[in-house]
Structure of Olfactory receptor:
Amino acid sequence: MENNVTEFILTGLSQNEDVQQLCFFLFLLCYIILMTGNFLIIITIQRSPNLNSPMYFFLSFLSFVDICYSSVTAPKLIIDFQAKVKNISFVGCMIQLFCVHLFGCTEIFTLTVMAYDRYVAICKPLLYTTIMDWKVCSMLVVTCWLGGFVHSFIQTILTVQLPFCGPNLIDHYFCDVHPLLKLACADTYVVGLIVVANSGMISLSSFVILVGSYTIILLSFKTHSSEGRRKALSTCASHITVVILLFIPCIFIYLRPSTTFTEDKMVAVFYTIITPMLNPLIYTLRNMEVKNAMKRLWIKKSLGKNRKNP
């Protein structure tokens, strides 16, 4: 069958105009906080010599991925709150689908790598600098990108080759696999199974690996001093919080057949906007090194301004 659809119409989060106006300001504020917080994390780590370690290298990379991930969906969502018709071209929809899964999967792999980094640092501290040298860290980041690309490429190819002959109304605020499969004019059962095997199993297997890693880390605390235990627990608590906020919604959405629920849109808000917005707050509020580095940079900047304006 031929593809007769040149554009899709998004339903968005709500059809109520008053709710849309409220959501416009709310999500605009969330996006500003998200961008400011993640850029602040990146700048702080880049300009602070005392944060020159693999953990902060991965944290700055996570912030970069968060910026990219949310920027694929949030600006379009915010603009659509003011639009009468929330349309997106077929090509634009496929590009958005590709980017959502590219950055989303890269973030999942990055969190898994960060858990491995914490495992080595806490359970094998004497070998940490040998195991996690900069060559290994760079290779792990490249692997995250490659894994995200392969996953996203499969998702997009499976979707773009399907025939769409109408209707073209997507019951979502961005282009994702399940809502698009629902509109296809063909049997999507096999494609749906592949999507579950691809997206769902990546989310579930990564979550199991993360839970296993942090379980081993928590069990190893008994051999640490009270101060070392407190510091390690604080770091791990931040990571575990982020993992729960990201993985539980992803598993709910993707580890099931190609069906859609009314709750899907609100659940998707968590992993596309809320979690990337909260990441900087979660990591900085529980990390004294990052907070102290931010204070030093702020003081340095303030002193520089005072010297210029005596």
